[in-house]
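Good morning C.,

I know you're traveling, so I'll keep this short. The sequence:
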Amino acid sequence: MNGKKHVGTGAVSNWRQGKIAMAGVLAVLAAIAIPSARAEDAVVQRGLAYLASRQHADGSYGAAVYRGHVAVTAFVGRAMMAAGSKPGAGQYGDRLT
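The tokens, ready to paste straight into the viewer:
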């Protein structure tokens, strides 16, 4: 060995997958935060629908190394609430309870 640490393709793939998931959450939050972007916008709705579809059985969100991470789950919940849902009410209310 030459002393260098090698990262397998699985680890790199998991890292990229986690980064892509985080980027998606942040993009939805940014789109909602901009006053001219309303929750009714098709892009935001598609992003929220995608995030909702990625919820795990235990209620958490995140992929790869971020699976079940509290901050990722909080970001997703915040995006859904910014779009008008509340725990038990609204389009994504069932995802927030």
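Safe travels,
E.
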